[in-house]
Amino acid sequence: MTKSELVQRLADSSPSLSLLEADKVVSTVLEAMIDALCRGERVELRGFGAFSVKRRDPRNGRNPRTGQSVKVSEKYVPAFKTGKELRERINASAQAGTAAQGA
After folding, report:
1. pLDDT digit string, tens, across residues 48-64
2. Do 77 and 53 touch, CB atoms closer than 8 A?
3. How does the average pLDDT of the chain come out, rounded?
4. Cα(5)–Cα(29) distance, rounded to whole angstroms?
5. CA torsion angle for 58, 61, 63, 64 (degrees, to 10)?
6. Are the C-beta atoms of residues 81 and 50 closer than 8 Å to each other?
7. Do the Cβ atoms of 11 and 19 come closer than 8 Å?
8. Residue among 9, 88, 1 nearest 48 (CA)
9. Strand, coil or helix: what is 45?
């Protein structure tokens, strides 16, 4: 699902919201999440999952083209851990799909 598809579904499910307003809502939520992660905070959406920032230590890597050793500096990367409810729903739908294919 893309951001524009999410905006469209939000607008469709809330008749009082125009497409423009739905886009503003989605953009505002995403910006708030990005800002929190940039400050090093954790973003938790109950039932969905939690976003956090993890530190990767500096290391020696290799240039795949030349094989030459390259120093890779430390960096921070976003991480996501699924929530229990999301994990259970995905597993239930996957099992239902597998059962339907086996029938």
Report:
1. 999 999 999 999 999 99
2. yes
3. 94
4. 15
5. -130
6. yes
7. yes
8. 88
9. strand
Six-digit token pair at 37? 């992660």
Contact 86, 48 (CB under 8 A): yes
Tokens of 11: 């607008």
Contact 43, 51 (CB under 8 A): yes
Angle of helix 3-13 relative to helix 19-38, nearest 10 degrees, comes to 130
Q: Are β-strands 49-56 and 59-62 bridged in parallel, bridged antiparallel, or unpaired?
A: unpaired
Look at residue 94 in the predicted model and tell me its pLDDT.
87
Contact 79, 52 (CB under 8 A): yes
H-type alpha helices, the chain: 3-13, 19-38, 84-102
